[in-house]
Amino acid sequence: RLIRGRVLTFVAEPKGIDDTAAWRYFEDGAVLVRGGKVVDTGDYADISKLAGADVEVADHRPHLVLPGLIDTHLHFPQTQAIASYGAQLLEWLNTYIFVEEQKFAEAAHAAAVADRFMDELLSNGTTTAVAYCSVHAESVDAYFTAAEARGMRMIGGKVMMDRNAPDALRDTPQQGYDETKALIAKWHGRGRALYAISPRFAITSTPEQMEMSQTLVAEHPECYVQTHLSENRDEIAFATSLYPAAKDYTDIYARYGLLNERMLLGHCIYLSDREISALAESGAVGVFCPTSNLFLGSGLFDRDRFDRLGARWSVATDVGGGTSFSMLETMDEAYKVLHLQGQRLTPFASFYRMTLGNARALGLEKQIGSLHAGADADIVVLDSSGKSAMEYRMRTARSLAEELFILQTMGDDRCVAEVYVAGKPMKAKGKRATAASRF
Ligand code: GUN
Ligand code: FE
Q: Which residues form the Amidohydrolase-related domain (predicted)?
């Protein structure tokens, strides 16, 4: 298949607004796809010569063709708990989230939500995501089964939590270990699936469960590790009170040997320089979740301090604390969060971050996040005039940078014209029926 359009892909992190060496842009471009992989990307005139005469052409002009978007932190069982009103983190978890996640004890429910979750990601142009499942092993089966049915490269794992949560959501250190072991054996590396060892956060894991997590990480260096860190002041006070021997919140995880370059730490808002430097030294990734940090009233992620101290960071929706599956809307909020702190996020840096930047955070830059020869053919087609107000605004746009910025600031799933997973078009055609009023 030959995918034709205005192709944009990155080769490096843009260092400034006009660092044109960081990206490749082909005004009349094409991506040649065969067997789920990118054969080559470039000018249509050159790439079409590589294709056989009988190649199927998908002509998306004048839309933009980019690598599929990547979301590095969200919660699959919170799909139906987005927009839960009025509480900050700990109250929100207890009032809404720990109630919602109990529904995933039922395999049929987990399977239904997993299907909808994957479709929602794809509608928003996200082809790879890293998600927490619920404490129930069945929820992980539902998650990877739904991903496999669509051919998606998805990362995830069973959340481990053995205290400060309702009975029905608690495992034990041994059970968390045994179930995680079995799920890794079943799913990690099966098709495109990759496993993330997932102790929820210090508050919901006893020292015994942290030790079990340490063992799992030591036994499975091929897997990711994910948790939450320094999101909210009450959370930090509670977490550090539970681990009095730790120097600070970050040190809780460091003491259990969890910090490594395959670790993703959600939020990282109130870290000291010492803590960010500890992340930098270990190669662990701080995950910026702008819509969630605003929605839960958590705080502002300080990207410049991460950059200055040499720590890695990525971006994510954090659905259901996050309010949208859209990475465009997420970067819109990221821009505003940084702006409030006098920091800039250029349009090219933003699109880099949703694609190659997040792929690098996952160590998957050979496979996803760009359209180089040999990459997986996960591709999104973006219509930068997907809403009427955008179309009117776009008439005055004078550069690609300006177009990208408008797309990010005003765009959402209505701007996703098509999405390809391993070369296959996946965008659900037609609108869903709207439910009649229930109230
Ligand atoms: N900290 C521990 N669990 C969660 C969660 O589900 N969402 C968010 N935003 N923070 C958390
Ligand atoms: Fe989260």
A: 64-425
